[in-house]
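Task: encode each sequence below as structure tokens.

Item 1
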Amino acid sequence: VQLQASGGGFVQTGGSLRLTCAGSGILFRNNHMGWYRQTPGKERALVALLSMGGSSTYIDAVRGRFTISRDNSKNTVLLEMNSLKPEDTAVYYCRANAPSGTSYWGQGTQVTVSS
């Protein structure tokens, strides 16, 4: 199983980025998918969740600005990030959670938002 996150970069405040998590050896539609982020010295924290059934959950800090979605035909999970703020700067990770409890992490992708 491999999860590959991509799409990070450097943007100015108010800009947008789209992160993509691509999976191999795993079907994302059979898992609950999440995006997390981590800054230096802090623990990795949840940003958005997408259930197998398609319901989404966001932390307050990103609700209304970020959108998590899944493309079953490509076996990818996206995180559309709009109106980015400097406090969104972090390494972003995708995670797949199987109903059995097994979880898989992708490698991180750096997002940097300049003020």
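Item 2
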Amino acid sequence: QVHLVESGGGLVQPGGSLRLSCAASGTIFSIIAMRWYRQAPGKERELIAGITNDGTTNYADSAKGRFTISRDNAKNTVYLQMNSLKPEDSANYYCYVYFSVLGDYWGQGTQVTVSS
């Protein structure tokens, strides 16, 4: 059994920063890819950033230049550093991990609210 535990969400003022973390635990063979998605009320879930096992990253246009995805392979953890946050970044953020053998898993979500 694999568990993904997210943390780091909260309330922040426009222009502020947050760092999200997602730690995988359990019987893990290897991690192929790790991603962050977000979903705002009434909107579809969208891919924000992804990172592969060789460190290749990709970002949604809305995240480029402001968000940075990284991973700590020793800790089976993926991070999303979010800077210059805007009210439109408010959403529930989910981590996604694709494991070798096990397939894909989702985190429970962490709420990010950007408001003054």
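Check on item 2: The mean pLDDT is 95. The first strand starts at residue 2 and ends at 7.
End of task.
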